Amino acid sequence: PRSVTRGADGALAVAGLSVRDIAAEFGTPVYVLDEADLRSRCRDFRAAFPTEDVYYAGKAFLCRAVVRMIAEEGLHLDVCTGGELATALSAGMPPERIGFHGNNKSAAELSRALDAGVGRIIVDSFTEIDRLTALARERGVRPRVLVRVTVGVEAHTHEFIATAHEDQKFGFSLAGGAAANAAFKILDEGVLELRGLHSHIGSQIFDASGFEVSARRVLALQSQIRDARGVELPELDLGGGFGIAYTTQDDPATPQDLAKRLRKIVDSECAAENLAVPHLSIEPGRAIVGPSVFTLYEVGTVKNLDGLRTYVSVDGGMSDNIRTALYDASYSATVASRASGAEPMLARVVGKHCESGDIVVKDEFLPADVQPGDLVAVPGTGAYCRSMASNYNHVPRPPVIAVRDGQARLIVRRETEEDLLALDVG
Ligand code: LLP
């Protein structure tokens, strides 16, 4: 986070609060959210996309306090399950600012969304269109929908592949004609209000040209719909996926750069297709919350395998950050509780789980005198860490605290053994 400094005692401080005080008050592991940092990232996106809508993708990390923060900062919210929707509503997110995603929304979830009056539903299959149409008819309502289009662009970090066909579960295929047929079906039936098209091409993307190809492809469909049905769809959502720097090698685009490029391609394609420029929206998750959080662990053991490697075990692991094991993701780590003049030593930061793949940080230079009791901070853990946390090995999931102006506030409490046992009714 932006407000991390090293204090006179050598310990890291976030927004003026020492990690030693955080560990003493809340224990470890703990996710530490720098609230000013999160809010400033929301503002950066709002400033870069002032006339567009920015939907925070709640799957990255969602709790009531964060819903309130992003709502106060003028963002919209993307949810993709009944659970995320319930969290959003219970935090008072205005329903008209919620977009509801998902490739298999149940009738119960759709009913709840309709009854709450969510602003839009991104439909993902013909089955869902029929399901939603029936529920809307029953209620006499006309929900606003977007059609999720599979544009045949697959983006992974520093590269993207543009293909004609895409083999994946999400959305309606563009190349196969399903996307056009979905739009025609909705327009012809007239029960749902078709507001526009949606595409999402991947996550942790650095090469913005993937968005340009995708925008070009959806806008071609937009003009096909106009030609066939005489309707110009008023909205376009280009999804999320904007990359963040996990290590010093990553160099993400700023929201301003992204906005400029997206607007430019949309404007020029619309001019070429003779379309009115639709109202744009985007759905960043990771880029909003990822960099605002670090995980604070305590070192429990240091094992030096002579000539091979040093394993530094911390008191969490793959249950609070599955990304290294699952995606081979790269993180960094630093000794946070003190300064050290010791030589740097190549270390692997591992967790406490019964599995050798339980790695938090594959390779990191830590001071050679790292020892049990030291606190270690792993930055960039705001997105897809707490939200994908598990209770593997019956390890209670860590709390999340929000730090602001030197004050810490618990926003998600630590799970307890009682919580774990509460579900065990046998
Ligand atoms: N919109 C849609 C429709 C999405 O499916 C996603 C992410 C987003 C927006 C937000 O993407 P973001 O801006 O956060 O990259 N668990 C994986 C990431 C899965 C992303 C799923 N969809 C990870 O930890 O890298």
TrEMBL record:
The gene is lysA
**Limits of the Orn/DAP/Arg decarboxylase 2 N-terminal domain:** 36-289
- Residue numbers annotated as active site: C354
* Identification of the protein by name: Diaminopimelate decarboxylase
GO MF entry, a single one = pyridoxal phosphate binding
What is this enzyme's catalytic activity, as reactions? meso-2,6-diaminopimelate + H(+) = L-lysine + CO2
Upper lineage ranks? Bacteria, Bacillati, Actinomycetota, Actinomycetes, Micromonosporales
Question: Binding of substrate: at which residues?
Answer: R286, R323, Y327, E355, Y384
Tell me the ranges covered by the Orn/DAP/Arg decarboxylase 2 C-terminal domain, including all copies.
292-382
Q: What does this protein do?
A: Specifically catalyzes the decarboxylation of meso-diaminopimelate (meso-DAP) to L-lysine.
